[in-house]
Amino acid sequence: VPKAPFECSSKAFRVLVIRVVEVSYFVTKYLEQIFLLVFAGMAAITADLVKEKLTCQLEAQHVEVEDTTADRCFLSFKVLVVSPKFEGKPLLQRHRLVNNCLAEELKEIHAFEQKTLTPEQWEKEKQK
Fold it and tell me: What SS3 string covers 78-100?
């Protein structure tokens, strides 16, 4: 009868199984914590939150927020903001106003597409 590569008593085997189960449990818990840390901020950022912040802080007359996360791998949004605060400002300054408004959220957002219009530009665009 060939010998096994190692001798293992039933007690040693039970100890080994217990250790494997313990390690598996701690690895699982560790991975859960990593997952929560990575994705916790993403779960809190919603289209409604983005819309509310833009509306309030930029005194926007019209805001559209589309959550495009399903089309991508990570949290992403597409926004249209119409605000009188954009009057007389070039595109870059408008975008900076939006970015400053959402500074904390943009730390967690992977892709962010924005269109910024003055009320006058918005009225013209609606007529097209």
Answer: EEEEECHHHCCCCHHHHHHHHHH
Q: What is the pLDDT of residue 70?
A: 83
What is this structure's pTM? 0.66
Q: How far apart are CA 47 and CA 88, in angstroms?
A: 28
By CB neighbour count within 10 A (0-12 exposed, 13-18 middle, 19+ buried), where does 98 fall? buried
Is the Cβ–Cβ distance between 111 and 73 less than 8 Å? no
Contact criterion met (CB below 8 Å) for 59 and 83 = yes
Count of Cβ atoms closer than 10 Å to residue 107 Cβ: 9
Rounded Cα distance between 8 and 49, Å, is 59
Residue 125's identity, in one-letter code, is E
| Dist. CA 92–CA 53, nearest whole Å | 20
Q: How many Å apart are CA 41 and CA 107, to the nearest integer? A: 9
